[in-house]
Design brief:
It is flat, with a radius of gyration of 17 Å. The longest helix has 25 residues, at about 70-90. The protein has helices spanning about 10-20, 35-45, 45-55, 70-90, 95-100, and strands at about 30-35, 55-60. It contains 5 helices and 2 strands; from the N terminus they run H-E-H-H-E-H-H. The chain has 2 domains: about 1-65, no CATH class; about 65-104.
Length: about 100
């Protein structure tokens, strides 16, 4: 997909996600209104952004019928996933783990 194919705030959303990854953020929450075509197109690029920049991205779509409880649960799960990823990364890079991996 070419960047010319992405309009409105969609291109800004992609660029902001990449900037946050380069700044060392742990994750991105992408929120957009239901039926917003530029953001729907932007969302389709996030799998590539996640892989290339190693940053998790969660998308929340908002409309007037959306309940808060569902969002709270999804955000809590996203944060838990990020924390587990950080703990696993820290354990993998600890001196004790390095020594164990070198003995394999």
């Amino acid at each position: 997909m070419k960047t010319d194919d992405i309009g409105g705030h969609g291109l800004s959303s992609i660029g902001a996600s990449i900037r946050r990854a380069k700044m060392g953020f742990d994750g991105v929450v992408h929120i957009y209104p239901l039926t917003c075509m530029p953001e729907i197109v932007a969302q389709s690029t996030f799998n590539e952004v996640q892989k290339k920049y190693n940053i998790p991205i969660m998308t929340l779509i908002v409309d007037e019928m959306t309940g808060e409880a569902g969002y709270t649960t999804r955000l809590e799960a996203f944060i838990d996933m990020i924390l587990m990823k950080k703990k696993a990364s820290a354990a993998l890079h600890s001196p004790d783990t390095s020594r164990l991996l070198n003995n394999c």
